[in-house]
Structures are given as C-alpha cells and as structure tokens.
Design brief:
The protein has 337 residues and is an alpha/beta fold. The radius of gyration is 20 Å and the shape is globular. Strands 1-2-3-4-5-6-7-9 form an 8-stranded parallel β-barrel, surrounded by 8 helices. The longest helix is centred in the last third of the chain and has 20 residues, at 227-246. The chain contains 12 helices and 9 strands. It has 2 domains: 1-160, Luciferase-like domain (TIM Barrel, Alpha-Beta Barrel), CATH 3.20.20; 214-331, no CATH class. One of its GO terms (cellular component) is cytosol.
C-alpha cells in the first residue's frame, strides 16, 4: 500500500492563536500516529501571520515530544535561507533527542518575499549553491573523521535522511543525481508533476542513503460525510489561495456556503489551477481519488494536506482519509464496512 503522510500548515485561525495552532499540530500528530500515517512534516514560512511554523526545528521538537513512533520532519527547510552548519546543528540535535524519527526535507526557493529575505540576511544568489549546500549537510551528518577540525555538534554520525523537495523538474534532476528521495509539491504546483516524476525515475543513481528511488506526491485531500460538506470545508483553502493572489494573507477563515461570492473569475482560474489535483469528498470519493492518483503517478507515498478550519473537523478528515486508503487493499464488501 502507498504510504500516507501529513504536511501540516500549523494554521493560525480567526479562533486560534499561535500557541493554539502549535498545540493543535501536536495533537494531530498524536492521532496520525495511531491512524497509521508514516510521517508528519511542517514547513518553513516567514512573515505569514497565519502560519506558526517559521522556527521549523523548534516546532518539530514540540511535535516529536508529543508522539512516540511517527517520523517528524521538515517539508521543508528552505536551505538558501541558512548556513548548512546551522541546519546540521539543529537537526542533529533533534536526531539525538528523537533517534530514528527525524527527516530533513530541503527546498531551493527562499519561501518568502524579498523584504523578509533581506531580514534573514540572505540573497537570491544563495539558491545557486543549493547542490553544494546539500553535500555540505551530508558531510556534517556523516561520522566525523579522525582529526576533523570543523564539526556540526552534535550532528556527526546521526545520518539524518535528506529529501529533495520541488515544484519543477530541477528538484527531480538533483534528487536523481544525488540518489535522494524526492517530494513533489503538487498540492500547490501540479503543472510539472508527471514530467518531474518521469525524470526522477529515469535518472536515479543509487546512493548510500537510497538504493532505489522513492517518490512522494503532495496532494490536498478533504474528507467529510458527503461530497457537499467536503466542498464547503474546502472553501477555507480556496479563500487562502485567493488572498495570496490579492496580497492580503491573513488568518485562516472559516468555510463559507458559496465560494463564488468570494472570488472573481480570474482569481478562481488562478486558484483552481494550483488546486486542480485536490481530492475533495466523501470517503468513497476520496478512496477513488487516491486510487486514481497512485495509479497515474506510481507514487510511493502521498504527503497529504487537509486544510480544514476547525480542529476537530480536521481530525475527522484525516481519520477518514486513512480509512479510505486502507479500504483500497480490501475487497469491495470489506471497504464499505
């Protein structure tokens, strides 16, 4: 069965402050562990008042401390924003605290606006060093050599697994060349999904970390009792994307009855272009959507975003998604139970 994992946005809502968002994320991870999800990732976002995961390694520690077995990691760290040694120190520390449970997904984009990039003391030119920075990270995580004068303490010997994240063919080429697992961000940039996966599989070179390719596909999924209710819950995410185009990013908003009253035709076209691979509906609809996506992409793993406003309702969505996916390995009679 294709593995299921979660990318949590750590949403700050109109009814929940940043502390509430962080605690909700930890609570979701605990439930996800029991429901059989493989990993729980959070991402680096800066200068966004509706997302509380800017200090990504700190958030990962908070979540990992509230769980026991699920892998916890970054999906991802935007490496151009950081000196590799600092990331190695942070994730090496996490690996010492939570051995065998920490993942480090790496993105090439700065993941923010130019004003914030200046505040981070970084520049666009840092992206040009992405391949070299990854190899530098790998060296810090490897066992220290005799007489090695520079170490990322306590990272040496932790061998934290690295992932390459991408929304274009560049990441696919790099992941294949380095022999690393690859995650494609089709939950917001679906355009080059199939081409990128083809490149990754065709050009993969085995490495010490990975003997064979491992492709993860990001996908928005919302499950509810009916298709209509799931589509209503989806309006929270649709409004978030619309606000992004308007330059008015804010707190996550509760769902509305008619999304057509919120966005203009051009905004709808933009948002739905980015969200077009979303799977929204009842458990049966979600089961069919997952089956079709896995058949089309050959994904080894799905990284699921269920951007639902209310925490309890979001928990229900993720539980139903897990049940729907489990039903794919059952007979038709068993799947309807």
């Amino acid at each position: 069965m294709t593995a299921l994992s979660i990318l949590d946005l750590v949403r700050v809502t109109q009814d929940t402050d940043a502390r509430g968002a962080l605690d909700n994320s930890r609570d979701l991870a605990g439930h996800a562990e029991r429901w059989g999800y493989q990993r729980f990732w959070v991402a680096e976002h800066h200068n966004m008042i509706g997302i509380a995961s800017a200090a990504t390694s700190v958030v990962i520690g908070h979540i990992a401390a509230g769980t026991k077995t699920i892998r916890v990691g970054a999906g991802g760290i935007m490496l151009p924003n950081h000196a590799p040694i600092v990331i190695a120190e942070q994730f090496g520390t996490l690996a010492r605290l939570f051995p065998g449970r920490i993942d480090l997904g790496l993105g090439r984009a700065p993941g923010t606006d130019q004003m914030t990039m200046r505040a981070l003391r970084r520049s666009l030119q840092n992206s040009d060093n992405f391949p070299q920075d990854i190899q530098e990270l790998q060296a810090y995580f490897a066992p220290a050599a005799a007489g090695q004068r520079l170490q990322a303490v306590p990272a040496a010997g932790t061998d934290v697994p690295l992932w390459i994240l991408g929304s274009s063919t560049y990441g696919a080429q790099l992941a294949a060349a380095l022999g690393l697992p690859y995650a494609f961000a089709s939950h917001f940039a679906p355009e080059q999904l199939l081409h990128a996966l083809q490149i990754y599989h065709q050009h993969f070179e085995p490495s010490e970390q990975s003997a064979k390719p491992h492709a993860m596909v990001g996908v928005n999924i919302i499950a509810a009792d009916t298709d209509a209710e799931a589509k209503r819950l989806w309006t929270t995410q649709q409004m978030s994307f619309t606000n992004m185009f308007r330059g008015t990013r804010g707190l996550s908003a509760p769902p509305i009855d008619d999304i057509e009253t919120y966005w203009a035709p051009a905004e709808k076209m933009q948002a739905m272009g980015m969200l077009r691979r979303s799977i929204i509906g009842s458990k049966e609809t979600v089961r069919a959507g997952i089956a079709a996506l896995v058949e089309e992409t050959g994904a080894d793993e799905l990284m699921i975003v269920s951007d639902v406003y209310d925490h309890a309702t979001r928990l229900k969505s993720y539980e139903m998604i897990a049940e729907a996916a489990a039903g794919l390995n059952k007979t038709p009679a068993e799947a309807t139970c």
